[in-house]
Amino acid sequence: MTAGTTMKAKAQPQVPAVPRMPGKIRHALGSATPSIVLVLIILAGWEACVRILQVPAFVVPAPADIAAVLVERQAELFQASLVTGAEILYGFLYSCVVGIAIALLVDRYAWFGRASYPLIVLFQNVPKIALAPLLILWFGYDLLPKIALIVIMAFFPVTLNMLVGLRSADANLVALLRSIGATPNQILRQVKIPASLPALMAGMKVAITLSVIGAIVGEFVGASAGLGYMIQFASSQMETALVFAALVQISVLGVFFYYVIEFIEHRFLGWATH
User: Fold this and answer.
1) Residue 216: its pLDDT value, please?
2) Which of 209, 210, 104 is nearest to 165 (CA)?
């Protein structure tokens, strides 16, 4: 290679390497693309139908009008979201405590399971919305009746899934521990509870969606704040765009809580999700 050729090679500008997105982000974007495209198609068709057919806004508002309300009244919607979000969070946490406690008692004490499990299943057939007025009557219009309604609606999937997980523990390992003198409580702590965690997380995902429904139902029956109350008030004023905006806000809130649980599952139970 001559000196001139070497100088030309050195003079060529180096193109900086384009940073690549991490694999997980690319995979997430690729997985979400079909859903995003479908949502955009639905919104475009919705907008076109409303505009072409000239549907009154108080019947079905156009997506553009709903988006405008979401932006213009976001401060009001955000404050309502804080109220509803607190109800969902407290109710969900209490649901998990109650559901886990019942599952542990049913698995640990056979007599308790025989006595209570049929009653728990029977109680699940009672329409929960019928209990909401009674809870308002007993506990007033504050946070407590909403939490009670959420617990009634959401504890059962936690109990059922954790019970399935407890009973799916390795029978050979349980037998081995019994043979070396382990107590039932030691077997429960060291084998059954760790084995039940993946099923418990699945039950918690169901419970968080029921918690959102329970909070809104409770606010429908009796409340002075929250997204459910806003929907009731907006409906009475025929502000349909605000109703849809509150529904969007509720959906975002529910998706947020759901993915928080999924993040916790992948962070601490990654061994069980692969």
Assistant:
1) 92
2) 104
